[in-house]
Structure prediction request, 69 residues.
Amino acid sequence: MDLVVSTLLWTWKFTKEASPWLLLGFLFAGLLKAFVPSELILRYLGQRNLRSILTATLVGIPLPLVYTS
Prediction:
């Protein structure tokens, strides 16, 4: 029974810590969807070439660094 209670408490603590960041991420994604045209994203990331891969990599590298700080 202690295992169940400690698991539930850990889950609640993790949810409380992560929820502001999730909401911020949802807000950012919504703003991108509303204000950045899909054609712009497809132009830079939608092709199967080295430039698209490098651009996606450069955009994606800071994401885990921002989340863990």
The chain has a mean pLDDT of 88. Residues 37-69 form one domain. The chain has two domains: 1-35, 37-69. The chain is about 85% helix and 0% strand.
